[in-house]
Every structure is written in C-alpha cells, then in structure tokens.
Amino acid sequence: MSKQELVVLGQDAADGCCPTLLSAPLDEGTAAELALVFKALGDPVRLRLLAMIASREGGEVCVCDLTPAFDLSQPTISHHLKLLKQAGLIDSERRGTWVYYRLLPDTTDRLAAVLTRPGAPAAPAA
Asked: How far apart, in whole angstroms, are the C-alpha atoms of residue 44 and residue 99?
C-alpha cells in the first residue's frame, strides 16, 4: 500500500465547493484528490468503521468499541482508522488510554455533492 499522504477534499478550493461529476469534467488535481479519498473508502473494513462512527449516538465512538466488531487485530484496525483520518473523513481525540473517533461531515458532504446531479432533488432523510 502506498504511504503517500491523503489530501482532505476541498481544503484549497476558493469557493469551498467542488464541481459534480455530472456537471463538468474534473481537472487533474481535483480528480487526484477525489481518488485518494475514494481509495480510503475502497475497503469494506474502512466502510464499516466509517458507518459505525457516523451512526454512533452522541457522534463519537471509542476505539475500544470498534475493535471487537471485527475479526482483526487492534493494530490492523488502527491502521484502517489512520487511513480514514488521513483522508479527512474522521478525527480523533485521545482521552487517557483510549482514542475516540468522530465523523467529519464536511468531507462526506463534499463527496455527496460531487456525486449528486446538478438540480437533483435532495434524497429523503432515512
């Protein structure tokens, strides 16, 4: 796996918004940034971790609650969480011996915006 740093989507955008895939061709830089974020999501374990964090009541979850949900070692779970954090999808805070993770909705909102048809009605809330 590549050790290159993942870029948080949209940090350098002057207007804070990215074009959608259906509204205009992506420039090379935007495509590269998007690819890195999607690559971070391209693993079933990371998708499950992100969903567990995002859906947690109170908005955050302790790593001690994430690890038992998988048949993987703690270092492997930590590696997946690190990749999600580098992609700007989650953030963390150490409290004593435990680390707590929370979703960074700005990044997921930007991803949703990139995948949405211009002028399409918003999806109904679940």
From this structure: 22
What is the enclosing helix (H) or strand (E) of 99? strand 98-103
Give per-residue pLDDT as tens, 78-113.
Answer: 999 999 999 999 999 999 999 999 999 998 888 888
E strand or H helix at 3: none
What is the third-level CATH fold of 44-115?
Answer: Arc Repressor Mutant, subunit A (1.10.10)
Q: Give the Cα separation of 30 and 113 in Å (integer).
A: 14
Distance CA 41, CA 83 (A): 9
Given a contact cutoff of 8 angstroms between Cβ atoms, the answer to whether 41 and 80 are in contact is no
